[in-house]
Design goal:
CATH architecture of the largest domain: Orthogonal Bundle
CATH class of the largest domain: Mainly Alpha
Low-confidence stretches: none
Radius of gyration: 27 Å
Number of strands: 0
Mean pLDDT: 83
Order of helices and strands: HHHHHH
Helix content: over 70%
Number of helices: 6
Structural class: mainly alpha
Oligomer: single chain
Length: 118
């Protein structure tokens, strides 16, 4: 469901934006924002379906939203992979520094503990 469909459902019932806002427990401004949105989150879609008593397409729409979220996550993963590839040398330097720092801290702890035992 997108904003235009939300508006059509609301208008087909003769509801004002304020009436839908009251039923949804949100402000009128929120309903206005929903109706201007191209894509609504799955939580909003579920809420609107329950308000409009339209569960027929909820499962299909839920699957579509889940698929869209997976695709978005894949894009994020691709961005991370691209970042790693583009910054491989810098990341190796950071890893070497972390290893060096860990070693120095361990050596310092051992030295302190050894002197305490003497």
């Amino acid at each position: 469901m997108n904003g235009l469909e939300c508006k059509k459902h609301r208008e087909s019932r003769g509801w004002s934006q304020e009436k839908l806002a009251n039923k949804a427990g949100v402000s009128k401004r929120t309903v206005i924002n929903w109706e201007q949105s191209e894509n609504l989150s799955i939580s909003k879609v579920k809420l609107l379906h329950s308000i409009f008593n339209n569960t027929e397409n909820l499962e299909i729409e839920s699957q579509l939203v889940n698929t869209a979220e997976r695709i978005e996550n894949l894009k994020s993963i691709e961005d991370v992979v691209d970042f790693i590839i583009d910054n491989e040398k810098k990341l190796e330097q950071i890893q070497k520094y972390q290893l060096w720092l860990t070693t120095k801290v361990q050596e310092g702890v051992i030295k302190i503990l050894s002197s305490d035992l003497k």
